[in-house]
Write a structure and sequence with these properties.
Blueprint: E1 2-4, E2 30-32, E3 42-53, E4 59-70, E5 79-82, E6 100-103, E7 122-126, E8 142-149, E9 154-159, E10 169-176, E11 182-185, E12 188-192, E13 196-201, E14 209-217, E15 229-232, E16 257-261, E17 274-278
Antiparallel strand pairs: 1-2, 3-4, 5-6, 7-17, 8-9, 9-13, 10-11, 10-14, 12-13, 12-16, 14-15
Keywords: Disulfide bond, Signal
Domain Fibronectin type-III: 140-236
GO cellular component, one term: neuronal cell body
Length: 279
Amino acid sequence: MRLYCTGINGAQAVASEVKPLINVLSTGGDLVISDVQPVHEGNFTCTARNTMSASTGLTVSEQKSSTIAVQVLLPIAHVDIVGENAQVSVMKINDTRYFVCEASTGKPVATIQWFKDNRSRDIITDDIPFQLVITSTPVAPASLQVNEVNINYASVCWNYGVKDVIYPNFVLELKRTDTQWTGQPVSDMNINSNSRICTAIRSLNTSTTYDVRVYAENAIGRSEYSNSTSFTTLSESTQVPLAERSTPPLSPETGAARRVVVSKSLVFFATVVVGVYYQ
């Protein structure tokens, strides 16, 4: 490394008379540092001075200085992976293994990155569309009515006034004149385009009068009851012949129907935006 120092009037650089003394590395305009090492890092000062003598015998000296900061950078000499069998490591699924990457001292300090198969990681994104449904306590079913009655079953239908939603669970409650209300979840029902919902009540007693009502529920709460209505199952002597029954017995009165099998547990729908990367 060669540094240049130039003094006005051609005077040579000499040691300063001001204490403490400056370590004089060289005289003249050039300073050559061979085989630069970290120890050479620091501030180098070039000082120029000239002395003028007047005829009166008065001596005047003038000195100026300039400083340069020298920073010595040090490349790393080696890098090693430290760990058990770090060169070829065999791992089982669900194992946890730690590796440490160590680099020799350098200046500036080395930035360490890991790559797989000599490649930087690729970031892959994917978007999934979703429908957001704001859920609240369900509304009460309405217009409950019995459509068909036989000796041991009845078909009942009701309106649910909210369309294009995730339907809540429905619970039918039934009672005879001399008993308390008992409820059973509706697990099989038909829904037409007008949100008219129908289901069948089975295993009823013959020639028996029942009251029926229905309510809706979800994870937030339950609705009020629908209206209640009564029906009486037929006796065996008045059973409707199979050929005269409507098909299917729980079909809605109007509109295209779809059959729904309801899970016992309420299912919530959510959305995710997936960001995946691999190394």
